[in-house]
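Could you please consider the sequence and fold following this short note?
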Amino acid sequence: MAGRCAGKLALVTGAAQGLGAAHARRLAEEGARVLCTDINGEGAAATAEAIVREMGAGAAFSCAHDVTDPDQWDRALATARSELGGLNVLVNNAGIGVGGNIESCDFEDWRRCFAVNVDSIFHGCQKALPLMRDHAPGSIVNISSIAGLIASDTIPAYNASKAAVWMLTKSIALHCAKSSMGIRCNSIHPTFVDTPILDGTARQHDLDKDVLLEKLARQIPLRFVGEPGDIANAVVYLASEESRFMTGAEIKLDGGISAM
C-alpha cells in the first residue's frame, strides 16, 4: 500500500480506544501494517478488525497486552515478529491519569501511574530495540502530555510521570543515535483531547459533556479541544521518514497553552 508510512511495521499500545485507536488507524491509512495492543484485548481486536474491514487483510492485528508486565512485552513482540514480520515503529501510547494533590494522592495510585506511564516505556524500548534494529530505519514515538511540561497542584503523579516520559525519550534518542541504530525517539505532548477519558471526567464532575468541552476550551488560546486525529497526524509524521532528522525532540500539541 502506498502512503507516507508505506512498508512500516508498527506496534501501538493502548489501541483499544481514544488516541491509541486513532494512531493505529492513521498509520494504517498511510500504508503501515499495525499491531494493536491493549490490556483490553477485546477492544484492541475491535480496533484491528475495523482497520482490516476498511483496508484489507493483513493491515492490522491485535493482542492483549499489559504494558507494565515485561513478560507480556515479550509476547507482544513475538506477535509483531510473527504477524508483521518485524518492527520498526513503536508508539508508546498507553497511559493513565491519577488525581489528588501531594497530600491526598494515594501512594499506590502514584506507583500505578508510574508503572503504566513510565515503566511501560522502559520495558517496551529495552525489549523492542533488538527487533527494531534489524528492521531500521525506525522510530519510537512516546505519548507524553503538556502536563509533563507544565505543572498543576492537583495532579503531581501525572505531572511527574509525564515529565519522566519526556526526559526518558531524550535519553533513549541519544543512546540510539550514538549506537548508530538508525532509530529515532521523540515525544508528543497533547493538552485536552476529546476522547472517552473526557466522558468519565464529565460524569465525575456531574457535567454535560458539551459543557465540559466549553470549559476546557476556554483554557486553550485556540479556544477548542483537540481531536484524536490532531495527535495521530503527528504520530504519522514521526513514524515516517519525513522526520528522519528529528530525534530527542518534543512536539507540543496544546493549542498554545505552553506559549502563555
Observations:
- The longest strand covers residues 183-190.
